[in-house]
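User: For my dataset I need records formatted as: sequence, then structure tokens, nothing else. Please produce one.
Assistant:
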Amino acid sequence: MKLGKFPTTILNRAVRLITDKIEKNKEELDRLLSIKDKSYLNFVRPYMELSYELSALFSPVSHLNGVKNSERSQKVLNKCIPLISTYYTQLAQDERVYKTFKKIYSKGGLNSAQYKVLEDSILDFELSGVNLPKKEKKRVEEINLRLSLLSEEFNQNVLNDTLKYKIVITDPAVLGDMPESDKLAAQKQGGWEFGLLPPSYLAFMTHAADRSKREEVYRAYTTRAPQNGKIITEILALREELADILGCKNYAELNIKRMSAPNSESVAAFLTSLAEECTPFAERELKQLTEFAEKLGVNDLAAYDLAFYSEKLKKSIFDYNEEQTRPYFELNSVVNGLFSVLNRLFGLSFEKKEVKLWDEGAAFYNVYLKGRLIGGLYTDLCAREDKRGGAWMDDWHTYHRDHKGKIHLPEVMVVGNFPPILDGKPSLLRHNDLTTLFHEMGHALHHLLSQVEEAAVSGIKGIDWDTVEFPSQFLENFGYEPEVLDEISSHFETGEKLPSALRDEIYASKNFQAGLSMLRQLEFGVFDISIHMQGALSEDEVQAVLDDVRKRYAVIAPPSYNKFQNGFSHIFGGGYAAGYYSYKWAEMLAADAFLEFQKRGVFNKDLAEAYLNTVLKLGASKKMDEIYRSFLGRDPKPSSLIELYGLK
């Protein structure tokens, strides 16, 4: 396998390739099932390869729809989704494979990764209805297909409305003290144009001095995709029906069977407990912000004021502003600096290769560990109008050994929406952009550094959803450390390092409004687990649940027109349904691990080597609690998350 050969033209033939592959897989499965003396090596491993190879075909189709979205990419994806969904649903209900897996498992004689593959697979078969009557199996297939299509429709609606909205400003007074780099990015003939993609939206909400214009943009953002209200009700009804068919009291119970958390009640208790600890801090922070806004003439602080006055308050407390630091965080320098940090920590190096990709802003790197080629990394980091918002990591290939004994190397894609490079002007990052890049690279390392030979539990494959964010959040914390900021900063004109005074101010401001930030995330998590514990709900009932959660946890009530749920892609268009709590569940692990690095030194070689050899190399070959004990010789401390945020 040659790394860096991304199929940029796959949309031309994707439907045919995937259709043909599915048919070949079915034929090969029949052959595998005809083997008389089935074993892990002659049946399970080649069976897993069938899904791996199909996923390797579909992944570029899905990726291109995210990074080069068009009517054509949407059309191709919408043709592929039913093929993929139907195939996997039927496969997950195949009693022949299920019984074979159980028989091979009972024979024993396997290593821990192989046992884990079978344990996970047997559970997935059972949660997919393998033991159901034929009629109910068919209904599960129909539900899974419909849910796949609805999720894609939900995401596309959000993206379409995000791209549709524009506001043109001709009066410079409206922009207040907006940084020149943000003005330059928005500059159009005769004024400035802003939209709802992250860099543009955040710049406007943080700096625009005209309160009415801020509300106008906020309203546009929080009322996107109103048609998603009906999609949500159908998704919830289908999820509830699925849970009922599979013998679970609700969808939360069904989904958490695949998680580390014991049950939905424990998740709700975890979120509530954290919220209770954070609320006093959040209330104090809000009081401080409210009093600050009143001094500036605003006596009715609203949701669309928070970013604006928080930025002004932050500037008044800490002796720096974003515009002072951004020249030191030019995108290419930050990327190279991050590579340097990863070299110091783990012995990684990155070699950029000239390959043709989907956009001239994308890049590919061969990745080496202590001189040995271990995989490939694609990056696509700047915002474009044909790219969906946010930042993410996608896996394409996974480290594994195939049934012929050949080792395959992993490849991953890290995608961002950072300020674009315009008219030769560099992309200057906010510090928040920098930590976002660290976060996604944490996911990438988790996949790239795996040494597990079974594809189904290698890298991020098979990781319990509520621990998958651990390596990403862990690496994100390094983006605040003075020693790391020294390594990655470089003034885009002079090459100077970030001055120590600015570096120290960034570190000191790390926990600015930590209570408000924590409570905001807990609000999302409580809403998610609540609706999935309640089952099928109407649009009004969904809103009522959200309103109730906001009464308990939102320190500032948003305006009634705010339909946050219609854009909540994590749970209605992604994989976080009944699992949004995972961010905080995993963040506890990340906080505990990072505090150990702070105590011993952020570039401590022995600790970094231990982390590499356990958390990163072992993938999902063992449960994360077991891996964590191998890493530090103890369980994580639940208090670490509160300690890291300074909320004690």
